[in-house]
C-alpha cells in the first residue's frame, strides 16, 4: 500500500532476498488484463528496500518492510496514500477489508489478474493463539508475537499470493474513511483458521522513523 508518494508499505517476507533493482511498483491497477483503463496506472522503479530491524523469519515476527521509490507517485483519484492508525484510533473491527492479488487456493503459485477483496472481522489475539496451538506444526507452546493481529471467519480468508497486501478497517466516526491496521503476512491453509497480519499500530513508530529518513523532496540515500 502507498503510505507516502515515495514509500510503499509491505511485508518483509515478500521482498526478503530481493534487491531494489529486482522490483517494480505498479500503482492504480485493479485488472492487469484490461487494456483500456479508465484510470491510468503509474509505474515506478525502487531505490531502496528497508526491512524491519526486528524481522525474524524463523520466529515469525516483525514482518514489515518499506519500498522507497526513485520517483514519487502522482496523487490522483486512483493513486493515493492510505491512512495509518495510531494507538488511539477507534475503528470498527468487525467489518475490515483485505485486498490482494492471490489466486484463492492454498499452494497455487503466481498471482491473479484481478485485484480481489474479502470482508473479515478481527479475531482476539488470545483466541487466535489458541487456534494456532491446535496445529501440529506449531504445537501447544506456540506464542503469537505481539507484532501480529489476526482476522478471519469461516471460509473467508486471504491466501497464497496475497502477502504484503493491506487489511483496512473503517473508522467509527461515520466519515467513511478507512485505516490500514494490518498487512497480510501468514496463515495455516486458507479459510480454516484466522490469518496472521502484521500489526501496523505495533510497527507505527518504526514506519514513521524510516519514512522520515526518505523524504520525497530529498536525495535518495541508503540505510
Question: Could you please describe the fold and organization of this structure?
Answer:
With 223 residues, the chain is an alpha+beta fold. The chain has two domains: 2-80 and 205-213, Trypsin-like serine proteases (Thrombin, subunit H); 96-201, Thrombin, subunit H, CATH 2.40.10.10. The chain contains three helices and twelve strands, in the order ββαββββββαββββα. The longest helix has 13 residues, at 200-212. The two termini are 21 Å apart. One of its GO terms (biological process) is proteolysis. Belongs to the peptidase S1 family. CLIP subfamily. This is Peptidase S1 domain-containing protein. Residues 1-212 form the Peptidase S1 domain.
Helix-strand layout with pairing:
Blueprint: E1 2-4, E2 7-10, H1 12-15, E3 24-27, E4 42-51, E5 65-69, E6 96-100, E7 116-120, E8 122-123, H2 125-133, E9 148-151, E10 166-170, E11 178-186, E12 195-199, H3 200-212
Antiparallel strand pairs: 1-2, 2-5, 3-4, 4-5, 6-7, 6-10, 8-9, 9-12, 10-11, 11-12
Amino acid at each position: 500500500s502507498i503510505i507516502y508518494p515515495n514509500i510503499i508499505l509491505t511485508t518483509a517476507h515478500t521482498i526478503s532476498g530481493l534487491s531494489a533493482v529486482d522490483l517494480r511498483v505498479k500503482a492504480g491497477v485493479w485488472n492487469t488484463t484490461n487494456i483500456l483503463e479508465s484510470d491510468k496506472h503509474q509505474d515506478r522503479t525502487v531505490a531502496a528496500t528497508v526491512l524491519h530491524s526486528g524481522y525474524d523469519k524463523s520466529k515469525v515476527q516483525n514482518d514489515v518492510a518499506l519500498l522507497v521509490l526513485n520517483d514519487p507517485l502522482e496523487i490522483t483519484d486512483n493513486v493515493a496514500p492510505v491512512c495509518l492508525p495510531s494507538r488511539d484510533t477507534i475503528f470498527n473491527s468487525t467489518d475490515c477489508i483485505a485486498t490482494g492479488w492471490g489466486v484463492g487456493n492454498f499452494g497455487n503459485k503466481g498471482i491473479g489478474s484481478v485485484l480481489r477483496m474479502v470482508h473479515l472481522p478481527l479475531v482476539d489475539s488470545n483466541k487466535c493463539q489458541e487456534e494456532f496451538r491446535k496445529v501440529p506444526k506449531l504445537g501447544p507452546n506456540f506464542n503469537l508475537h505481539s507484532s501480529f493481529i489476526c482476522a478471519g471467519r469461516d471460509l473467508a480468508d486471504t491466501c497464497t499470493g496475497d502477502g504484503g497486501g493491506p487489511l483496512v478497517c473503517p473508522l467509527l466516526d461515520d466519515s467513511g474513511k478507512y485505516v490500514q491496521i494490518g498487512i497480510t503476512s501468514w496463515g495455516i491453509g486458507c479459510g480454516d483458521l484466522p490469518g496472521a497480519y502484521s500489526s501496523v499500530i505495533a510497527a507505527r513508530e518504526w514506519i514513521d522513523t524510516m519514512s522520515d529518513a526518505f523524504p520525497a523532496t530529498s536525495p535518495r540515500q541508503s540505510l
